[in-house]
Write a structure and sequence with these properties.
The chain has 89 residues and is α+β, with helices and mostly antiparallel strands. The chain is built from four helices and three strands; from the N terminus they run ααββααβ. The chain has a three-stranded mixed β-sheet with strand order 1-2-3. The longest helix has 17 residues.
Length: 89
């Protein structure tokens, strides 16, 4: 399953690169892990980068979730996405 998780991370990064600058994508931390529902993908990063991923009224992130649903179907896994900013201390 770890191979599938790595493939999900790579596909998600490739998807983000379609509309987010590569330097900004490198600021993101994309973690994927197994939970009770399937695969949980957490995207952490600076707010200015995450705002590009979330989009206006959350429409972009909802579209990404739909794409992840179809990727999960192809890989035989249920995928959920959580987007959060880094905690600054």
């Amino acid at each position: 399953m770890s191979g599938k998780i790595e493939e999900i991370r790579e596909r998600l990064k490739k998807l983000f690169s379609l509309w987010v600058d590569e330097n900004k994508i490198n600021q993101l931390e994309i973690d994927a892990k197994l939970d009770e529902r399937g695969v949980l993908v957490e995207v952490n990063g600076p707010q200015e980068v995450l705002s590009l991923i979330i989009g206006k009224k959350g429409q972009t992130v909802n579209a990404v979730r739909q794409i992840l649903k179809s990727i999960g179907g192809a890989l035989g896994a249920s995928i959920s996405l959580k987007v959060q900013t880094k905690n600054r201390k």
